[in-house]
Amino acid sequence: MRLTLWAGFWVFLVDQATKYVVIHWMNLRERGEIDALAPYLNFRMAWNKGVNFGLFSGESDVGRWALIFAALAICVWVLLWIKDGTHSKKAYVSAGILIGGAIGNVLDRLLYGAVADFLNMSCCGFENPYSFNVADIGVFIGAFGLIFFASEKKTR
Prior knowledge:
Blueprint (H helix, E strand, L loop, with lengths): L1 H24 L2 H4 L1 E5 L3 E8 L12 H22 L6 H24 L2 E7 L12 H16 L7
Antiparallel strand pairs: 1-2, 2-3
């Protein structure tokens, strides 16, 4: 369980640190976009009020609180499921990565009213219209890690 908490802590910390730097120090909130390693990596400010790719986005406070509640409920469920002590280290780390990312996006919704997305990757003539953040990467990697490693049992 300690692995889960540490993995979650570090993902949360890196997510919030990068958002702070990009939003406040680099002033991406006002600038809107900065080409970092064009065209492969750019910073494009996007405020996501929905879930992935802006799905289920709306302007209502009810929707915002519903997404906060859903994310927290999933985190609690994953913690309760993983705490039995029978899973592999990879599963514990994956759970922590997912939880850290989810909590990072929950904090954004509480602080800003929406999730701060800023990473944009394009390549080879394809212009990606979507932005994401470190928390999104954590949720994605953590979810896939749980899919692949949840059935592995603890080795002695």
